[in-house]
Amino acid sequence: MARRWSASSTRWRASRRCQTGCSPSKPAASGGPALPGRPPDCWRASSVGREVRAINDARVVTPDGILEGASIVLEDGRISGITARAERSGEAIDAAGRYVLPGMVDLHCDAIEKQLAPRPGVEVPEELAFMEMDRLFAGCGVTTGFHGVSIMAGRSRGVERGRRLCALVSRLAGEGLVRHELHLRCELPQEESVRAVEEVLGRGFARLVSVMDHTPGQGQFRDLEWFRRYWSGDGADEAQISAALAEAERSEYTIALDRVGRIASAAKKHGATLASHDDDTVERVEVLAGHGVDISEFPVNAASARRARELGHAVCMGAPNALRGVSSGGNLSALEAVEAGLVDALVSDYHPPSMLQAAFKLAREDVLPLPESVALVTGGPARAAGLSDRGGIARGAKADLIIVGGRAGIPTVTHTIVNGESRHAAG
């Protein structure tokens, strides 16, 4: 009789044992998807850096459902097949009934800025900041991470520091445990920012570029009190905040169409996807659509998100927002946007651990089936960035995979595989 692969079963099979005879521990009962606990000792002993030929006894999450007790076969950095029988190979991992997901694709993570400057006025060596971000991505299950680097004057950021971070990511990307990409963030009101982004795009550094306007009184900072709190927390003093508010009062807000056109032209020339940021009106969405925007990240209200999707844009919201259930700035709730069917991708924004947690929360609270919530952090962002070779578990896809168990009811990445090689293992 053929083995039945169920899209709904989450039953923990405590009796399953690995090939060496040890048995995984059973987790405490909880609602939502079952999260197997501590890996067996033989599994935890698998070394980081070795080639992985197969993953056996896996609960494989695909866009169409969950394949119970399946094996994934890997060859030459690609997925070569999914079978119902265990692959007997010395380079196989026994998942012991744990979930296997595609490696997550994070289109917007600006956490490297905090790694570089953990406190206002304090910077650590750039290489250290990059390597710590690399380890964080690997441990969180992000196998393709886009570093959101703001090239903008003022506050803790700066145009020259932005240039340095872009060069850093480009120089060290090949040294990482995971795949590193660059997401350039251009501040439209600043001509200096626009020129610098054009320059970096011309060097072929970036796969993604977003156009932003952080002028107080609109977009993300419609609430001026929130603007004050945000800037103060980012190291700005009262004089800088007052100057920014005074400048905003002197100038009527308009989208700098000539600058958008320049960035759009440079993005197209150098093969980068163009995104908008903090869309706050339907009119803004429509104007930017005329310049070739493909992604709307963090729309601040449902009307803007809905219009973006109608125009074929991929809508990205923050995973921390979805996990917490509320926007930190009082804008659109990502959870409500997902419930309304307005979201194509969740991104880490500033907190990579939130991606996996948000995906499992959406399934646990019956907002979405697990395959659909997982797609928001895997296939959805991959498609938005034009990365057709990853984000799903299918024959021919890149062998970027994560194994997920649980501790204290929290989904935990126990293994990260990139290009068919083990890059992170945790007991």
CATH topology of the largest domain: TIM Barrel
As for the number of domains, it is: 2
Average pLDDT over all residues: 85
- The total count of helices amounts to 15
The CATH H-level homologous superfamily of the largest domain: Metal-dependent hydrolases
> Which structural class best describes the helix and strand composition?
alpha/beta
Query: For the record, what CATH class of the largest domain applies?
Result: Alpha Beta
CATH architecture of the largest domain: Alpha-Beta Barrel
**Broad shape:** globular
- Approximately what portion of the residues adopt beta-strand conformation? 15-25%
The number of strands is 16
Through-space gap between termini: 36 Å
Q: Which spans have pLDDT < 50 for at least 5 consecutive residues?
A: 1-30, 39-46, 249-253
Query: Nearest-angstrom radius of gyration?
Result: 22 Å
Helix % is 25-40%
Oligomer: single chain
Summarize the biggest pleated sheet: 8 strands, mixed
Task: Give a written overview of the molecule.
This is Alpha-D-ribose 1-methylphosphonate 5-triphosphate diphosphatase. Residues 1-40 are annotated as: Disordered. Residues 1-12 have a biased composition (Low complexity). The chain has 427 residues and is an alpha/beta fold. The protein folds into two domains: 41-103 and 392-425, Roll (Urease, subunit C, domain 1); 104-213 and 255-384, TIM Barrel (Alpha-Beta Barrel). The chain contains 15 helices and 16 strands. Strands 1, 2, 3, 4, 5, 14, 15 and 16 form an eight-stranded mixed sheet that branches. The protein has an eight-stranded parallel sheet with strand order 6-7-8-9-10-11-12-13. Strand 11 (295-297), helix 10 (302-310) and strand 12 form a beta-alpha-beta unit. It is globular. Residues 1-30, 39-46 and 249-253 have low confidence and may be disordered.
